[in-house]
Amino acid sequence: MKKIIVAIDGYSSCGKSTMAKALAQYAGYTYVDTGAMYRAVALYALENGLDEQQTVAALPEIHISFIHAADGQHVCLNGRDVETKIRTLEVGNKASQISPVKAIRQFLVAQQQAMGEAKGIVMDGRDIGTVVFPQAELKLFLTASPEERANRRFKELQEKGENPVYEEVLRDVNDRDYRDTHRAESPLRQAQDAVVVDNTDMTKDEQIAHIRRIFDDYINR
Question: Which residues 6+ apart lie within 8 Å of 183 measured at CB?
Fold first, then answer.
């Protein structure tokens, strides 16, 4: 069976990572969470008290890798498993702030493109189908209403033992949407040839089944 590159883009808290992981497992492909890579850089900046310019200067000291754990793929920062640490709201906000920085994007995009050279990869993020892999054979663009995305994020934070305020989570979702779509460097936008998936009213299982059908339709052409 031929191997392709699957690029999944979309707004925050749309389930991009969940869908990408599920599709990669279904297809027997490698999964790369690009958002986690930006979060790892953000964590490094927060832990070391670095501003934007200092973070750029420190890029040669930042090494990001992925490992397989019992509960799935984990992100490592300089050899340290930081999967849990990078999933906080604080790190997410920091990642959204540093992701528009051209030098940081170039640093990570180069790594992401190298990962996809052999194809057979599912990669999700904000600019995969437009910047990282504009030549990707299959592009998906995930979206959902801000309210539904905030609700999902709210529940996720609760499950992690945090005590979020829904209104603050919704405001954060809207703020991140604005930053992602208005940044000067690689803004979030739908590729012209992307298949749009609005999962506002879909359950997780319905989303997975829908994306599998889209993948199978492409592969079986």
Answer: 99, 100
